[in-house]
Specification:
This protein is an alpha+beta fold. The protein has nine helices and 14 strands. Helix content is 33%, strand content 19%. The strands form four sheets. Strands 4, 7, 8, 11, 12, 13 and 14 form a seven-stranded mixed β-sheet that branches. The radius of gyration is 21 Å and the shape is globular.
Length: 324
């Protein structure tokens, strides 16, 4: 699996690992040394080397750290500074992001949610290594905005859908002739640490259904609509097939998370406004199941239909995009 490339390996005298850490921190906002070790040096038996490189980056003003709010031992959570962001962006390896982690944001109550999003991505990466698939340290992108209605961009949540992350995964399956078939699977991932109301989770599903059908209106030109051109769903300009929707639950006991899954299914089934979600590939699992069993095990409960956990939502299908 190719390692993330750094922008300018000679500019600041950093080691290869130091060069790899910066773009990963830039993209994923907040990571601890354990997560970075599993992403970048999975064979390592301790976090010592990663922590040493983080100190070097810190000494150059490229990264900083905040103490984890829930840690009694003073665990550090690392992020890129404004200078570190500029260095990454100047290299052109990653698309620049408007959001930058700040000292206040790194110390805020969003710590655990951000770490959980990255734990979800890490679970995909680890199982991709085991299966011989492709999903690397930079293959999920947090909070990518998707317009779901025309009009004033200041409408915020009414105008945009913002998944917790968009994750891309290339899965390889054997073919009957002894060859292999590679398919790109894309996921809209939502992480709920038992802090979001069931009604809000259901509303997110409604937003996904709305995005699946959203066709941008033609732009106005000199007081009259422009004519011509192909009008189609907005998602087709970004994805070869509509991404699968994965709701990942954490932050409570197994029994409580199972109850939340049942409540969500009941609300979706009873609310006519949410029925557009019926034709989406959407399901619920837990972060622990994803860690232990991996993305292609029968661990996903469909949002609608049979409540039996299945692998069908994560299994490659005709809707997946084939890659060379």
């Amino acid at each position: 699996m190719p390692r993330p490339r750094f922008l300018d390996p000679t500019d600041r005298g950093l080691s290869q690992l130091g060069q790899e850490i910066l773009p990963v921190l830039y993209r994923h906002r907040l990571l601890n040394a354990g997560q970075l070790t599993q992403l970048l040096r999975p064979a390592a038996t301790s976090t010592r080397y990663i922590r040493r490189q983080l100190e070097v980056l810190h000494g150059r003003g490229l990264v900083d750290a905040s103490v984890r709010r829930t840690s009694r031992a003073g665990e550090l959570l690392w992020y890129t500074t404004a200078l570190g962001c500029e260095v990454v962006e100047s290299g052109g390896e990653l698309a620049p992001r408007a959001y930058r982690m700040t000292e206040d944001a790194a110390a805020s109550q969003l710590q655990e949610h951000t770490l959980a999003v990255n734990d979800m991505g890490l679970a995909f990466v680890q199982h991709a290594r085991r299966l011989g698939d492709e999903c690397g340290p930079l293959d999920w992108d947090p909070e990518v905005a998707h317009r779901v209605r025309d009009g004033d961009s200041r409408l915020g949540d009414e105008a945009f859908l913002v998944p917790d992350s968009v994750l891309r995964y290339v899965h390889t399956t054997p073919t009957g002739d002894g060859g292999q078939q590679r398919m790109l699977l894309t996921f809209f991932c939502e992480i709920d640490r038992a802090t979001m109301s069931i009604a809000r989770l259901a509303a997110k599903l409604h937003a996904y259904a709305r995005y699946a059908r959203y066709i941008p209106q033609p732009a106005l030109g000199r007081g009259r609509p422009k004519t011509g051109g192909c009008r189609r769903e907005a998602w087709r300009a970004r994805y070869p097939s509509f991404p699968r929707i994965l709701l990942v639950l954490d932050g409570a006991s197994d029994a409580q998370l199972a109850k939340r899954t049942d409540d969500l299914r009941a609300l979706v089934a009873a609310d006519a406004r949410l029925q557009p979600a019926a034709d989406l590939q959407a399901g619920v699992t837990t972060l622990e199941q994803l860690r232990v069993h991996g993305p292609f095990a029968p661990i996903v409960t469909p949002v609608l239909g049979d409540p039996e956990p299945t692998d069908v939502l994560l299994r490659p299908s005709a809707a997946a995009a084939f890659v060379a």
